[in-house]
Amino acid sequence: MTTLPDAHDGSAPAAASGAALLSLENVTTYYGQMRILEGISLQVGDGELVCLLGGNASGKSTTLKTVLGIVRPRSGRVTLAGQDVTNWAVPDRIALGIAIVPENRRLFGDMTVRENLELGAVLRGGEKLDDDLDRIHTLFPRLLERRTQLAGTLSGGEQQMVAVGRALMSRPKLLLMDEPSMGLSPALVQQNFEIIKEIHESGVAVLMVEQNATMALAIADRGYVLSTGEIVLQGPAAELLRSEDLKRAYLGR
User: Fold this and answer.
1) Helices and strands in the chain, H and E counts
2) How far apart, in whole angstroms, are the C-alpha atoms of residue 85 and residue 22?
3) CA angle 42-166-46, nearest 5°?
4) How far from 149 is each of 80, 121, 128, CA to CA, in Å?
5) I need a labelling partner for 148 at 20 to 30 A (CA). Which of 25, 50, 195, 248 fits?
6) CA geometry: angle at 214 spanning 209 and 220, to 5°?
7) What DSSP state is assigned to residue 112?
């Protein structure tokens, strides 16, 4: 594994914003008899934006599933907000402040935009949601226009807005994003990354899985590169952008 400058030798770089909000320590996971992740260690600091890069079948989505608890490690440890959550169920982890924008958005197509957004706040009980909805509508004015429209009738870009808005309705400490640029036009990809940057600047920590390395690193604090289930490169985003090692690890040349 190559660690670029400003990272600590032999381990994941220290989180830029102090103590780690999320930490994976030597995590190995399997699907049946097939090993998917091999001893990976990574951190996301409070309020930090970290991107996880890699090609298809590199283990990126499995890493997110391990953070959520959908996949349990065969060995290693997952900590969140200072607590060992390695064996915790998914709902218990979400209650600590995780939200996810899943790949392909996964909205409830026969429910309205407003109803999909409100589902993101279901764990908040009877709290009033007006301020949160106002924030989402400020980020995505189109959703105010579409609030009574069925989510399944929206364009791909609009559905992505709903998916992000739904996640933010839970007021997460850590936002997981799985391939946020997938299936979007170049113009919408640019807009999407600007929104992610704005979310990050508001103080929400983000762990983003993405194949568009250049755009992801342009807004991230740090990055990790996965290849066949192992972290082969890690470091500050600015250093990774200039790295020949990134081209070899990520592009295979």
Assistant:
1) 10, 11
2) 10
3) 30
4) 37, 19, 22
5) 195
6) 60
7) B
Nearest alpha-carbon partner for 68 in 199, 218, 174: 174
Place of tokens 């958005």: 105
Two tokens, residue 50: 């970290």
Q: Each residue of 70-101: pLDDT tens digit?
A: 999 999 999 999 999 999 999 999 999 999 98
Q: Is 130 helix (H, G, I), strand (E, B) or coil?
A: helix
pLDDT digit string, tens, across residues 120-179: 988 776 678 889 999 999 989 999 999 999 988 988 888 888 999 999 999 999 999 998
Structural domains of the chain in order of their starting residue, each with its CATH number: 2-97+172-251 (3.40.50.300), 100-171 (no CATH)
Tell me the one-letter amino acid at 26: N
How far is residue 177's CA from residue 105's CA, in Å, rounded to a whole number? 10
Burial bucket for residue 9 (CB in 10 Å: 0-12, 13-18, 19+): exposed
User: Phi then psi for 232, rounded to 5 degrees?
Assistant: -105, -10
What stretch of H or E contains 157? helix 156-168
pTM, two decimals, is 0.86
Residue 36 near residue 60, CB atoms below 8 Å: no
What residue type is assigned to position 121 of the chain? Answer: A
